[in-house]
Amino acid sequence: MSWIPFDRSLEGRWDEFVSAQPSGRMVHLSGFKKAIEETYRFEPFYQAYIKNGILKAVFPGFFHRSLIYGRRILSQPFSEYGGILLSRGMGDEERREILEEFSLLAEKALQVKHHSHLEMRNPMSPGVAGAPRFQTRILFKYAVRRLEHPESMWKALDSKDRNVILKARSYGLSMAEEQGEDSLRKRFYPLYLMTMKRLGTPPHPLNYFLRLSHYLKDRMKVFLVYYRQAPIATIVGWTVGKTVHITDMCSDAAAFFLKPNDFAVWEFLRWAYDCGHDVFDFGPVRYRGQEIFKKKWNMELLDYSYVYLSLKPNRIKNPFSGSGGIMTAAPEIWKAAMPAGLSRFLGKYFRREIGL
Fold it and tell me: For the segment 336-349, what is each residue's pLDDT rounded down to a tens digit?
């Protein structure tokens, strides 16, 4: 086999490879591995495919044990993306060889660890979804767009959406990129906790974001929206190659009338173009409200899927479907029963359990 386990000597080559692939996201980078290991103590299953001295594919993942979903290899936990990342421009025959070798490697790891299946979250490298031995489930959509000159993007917006942004500016909203532990701790994290409580979602601990900031450094972009010198919204994005990807948007509900989220997205789009990025990834579209908000920025909606390799195909549980599923009931239970102060401390354990 040409698949070998990740070690520190591969770190530089690994990250250069990820940055060179259009499908690469921050969860493929080695810094994400370190942050998850230190925050959640998951055991990694990171593999690299090297042939004739050339790195041609990587797989980032972790062994995950859950009372709800069973034992699985998860790529990637706490993320919208993951899976095998293949070198762009690869031929069909070479791709088949790499995926076949990986399936044998993964099946052996599952057997040794007594895990039932491997789960890849929306792997975007061509040929992974639908490959032999893999089972693909299309769940919903995700939103992406090619970045253009701000003037062109502005003209493409509906007039009512332009007016919303202009009105936000008239209120005196401003947005600034911020770095460092102090900003994450005092300005970003309170808004994040507030938003997670409102959505009924268990929050990550502060240390999760501090570790990401430490290991991914300049790739993590945290912007704060201010009103009268007070932070009212935040947007977190990640740069990998020519792509920017948003993972978190948080805001103070008391400031919704100021439209800080619309203002933040527009300013982020402008910033991304000015910094030379080509693609803006707005992440999954799971329900109608998300579709309306994301499509107005002229996003293209593409199929979003999970890809599985399973020793027990009939026992895979999909967290996003099925009556009585945890994703249906959990938010309302969390909002109703979990005190805000306690959620900060218990969120880590719920997150660890579900891996979302």
Answer: 566 666 777 788 88
